[in-house]
Amino acid sequence: MTTPEAPSAAPFGRALCAMVTPFTQAGALDRDGAQALADRLVSEGCDGLVLSGTTGESPTTTDAEKEELVRAVREAVGQRASIVAGVGTADTRHTVELARTAEKAGADGLLVVAPYYSRPPQDAVEAHFREVADATGLPVVLYDIPGRTGTRVAPETVIRLAGHPRIVAVKDCSHDFLGAQRVIGATGLAYYAGCDEHNLALYAVGGAGYVSTVSNVIPRHLRSVLDAFDGGHTAAAARLQQQATPLIELMMAAGLPGAVTAKAVLHGRGLPAGPVRAPLRPAGPEAADRLLAACEALTAG
């Protein structure tokens, strides 16, 4: 019987925000807004920032904008927080190019989603990740979100990929809690919850922390959940997680994408966000009011 490797420490910190990409009202990248938002998130408890992910509207930002965003955020936060750059695309060659550019721009790690639309089989998915991981010296976070990509990164595939020296973590949006626990138990990969409702649950079974969309608007509260758990105050951690549940549900499970809901709350609170890019559309007034009210109720408590 083989003994599982000891779980690795969180390589990018525990509390990571899947940061929105602020745009100007004219629709251009808002460099100043991105720097201001990044500084606020780090000041309020984020150990790391994940740029150009799903919440960062990566499908509608250009390669040049992705590079500029990494450079701008690095300038704003310095070494106070890790920066993980989303570089995943449906094309292995393009993903490799983005990975190399992100490394030169100052990223600390790479977020690589499973190739989408073409729905490659598992051997091709594995080969894709290995080629990207071989292309730079940066550590890689596998991003498993089959609801968007159409392709699962199967637990067996993740376990094989864990042997690669630069594949160090997973952002888990699979909704397969059993599969996540299997991989945590069998590997030294750092498992980050990618669905905010799983932040505490995954952490409690050996996860590394979270990569959170909701952290754009309540970074301090979500950090407090992990802090309470680490302090041995498990009932308090559960209570804090439950307090955030109404906002998590409105932001992540009420029919609007997280980029839309996060930007609606940020805008309502006077924080950098700007519009979303088409085909996304902004939240309507009623939805925006509900989101803002839920956020205000939580932060006022």
From TrEMBL:
GO terms for biological process: diaminopimelate biosynthetic process; lysine biosynthetic process via diaminopimelate. It catalyses: L-aspartate 4-semialdehyde + pyruvate = (2S,4S)-4-hydroxy-2,3,4,5-tetrahydrodipicolinate + H2O + H(+). Pathway: Amino-acid biosynthesis; L-lysine biosynthesis via DAP pathway; (S)-tetrahydrodipicolinate from L-aspartate: step 3/4. InterPro entries: Aldolase_TIM, DapA, DapA-like, Schiff_base-form_aldolases_AS, Schiff_base-form_aldolases_CS. Gene3D superfamilies: Aldolase class I (3.20.20.70). One of its GO terms (cellular component) is cytosol. Its EC number is 4.3.3.7. HAMAP family: DapA. Belongs to the DapA family. Homotetramer; dimer of dimers. This is 4-hydroxy-tetrahydrodipicolinate synthase. It comes from Streptomyces zinciresistens K42.
